[in-house]
Please model this.
Amino acid sequence: MKYSQKMWQAIDERLCLSSFSYSIPKNGNNLGYILGGITLFSFIILFTTGIYLALLYNPEILEANSSVLLMSAGFIGFIRGIHYWAAQAVFVTVILHMARIYITGSYKKPREFNWLIGVALFAITVGFLFSGTILKWDQEALEAFEHNIEIAKLLGGIGAWFAAAFTEVFHILHRMYIIHITVLPFFFILLFFEHAFLIKKLGISVWPANGERVQQEATLPFTTHVKKIIIFGFILLGVLAVLSAVSPPPLGPEPIEGIEVTKPPWMFMALYAIENILGLSSLFYVSVLFFALLAAVPFVDMRPERDPRKRKLMIAALIIVMALFIALVLMAALTAPKAHIG
Ligand code: HEM
Model:
């Protein structure tokens, strides 16, 4: 036995690292099947860069904008750029991961519950993006924050945490910061553990056209799967570093209350277009409807058939939703900013 193998055995005997491995079917190293791993890698980038940024960020209302300005130059500016671009990468990779699972029918029995955990993880991802946008406390942030207050009013008692009157001691920006750096990471880690546990127990689904039988016959070593995720993760990190250097994240001056002149980041543009048409309260109703429909997917399409070529209706629904999303983003991008708060 080689020295490195002996070393690994000695470590594994004590830390039981190999018990984290899960079943990898032959198709498990295709790009579509490592998107969840790449999303996780992007989250690790977000957490590490976020810890560094937290050393300089000041959530006091009069200091927030200037503290972000301070962390926009030099090396910390570069780290802020990676954090900013990694947030967008997470949004893209998680949507692609979800689309792969949808197309390959991997939400079907026995993985329905893991789909639901995924929906909750997606909601948390959106929460991270939204609260992160507010922290920089420029005009775009203030307007997002004011939308947040309006929705809280609409929710009455349930929205109390988000309402300005919840506590007089700290400004609500402080609470948004707590949400961003403790509440959301806590729920993310908790849910991700259950997500990973179920993946380990149930294994990754086989490519549907091959039939479940293949899973027992041909599997890949877990280490090659992890290696592939790490290689793609570092390629992504390289791209994020280049983006950070050539296109640093924007930061406007201190915000002015009582005006509404900005548009949200592109991830929220589809919602912005809907708000332009149906008004501010639609942000809440449309989001609830969207997440309810997403959660319902495994219970609407319950047939065991997973081959996308034999699930034409479900695939058509996905194409319509994707086309609608792109159309709404373009619509919002092409219209002038509009005021929604009375
Ligand atoms: C937000 C962060 C998320 C992370 C870090 C994550 C991570 C992972 C990983 C590492 C896998 C293993 C297979 C792969 O890489 O494709 C996986 C599988 C899975 N994920 Fe996620 N996921 C996330 C979100 C979601 C979402 C939003 C959904 C669906 C709404 C979802 C549903 C599933 C299901 C059903 C599987 C099993 C797939 C199969 O067996 O083929 N996940 N996830």
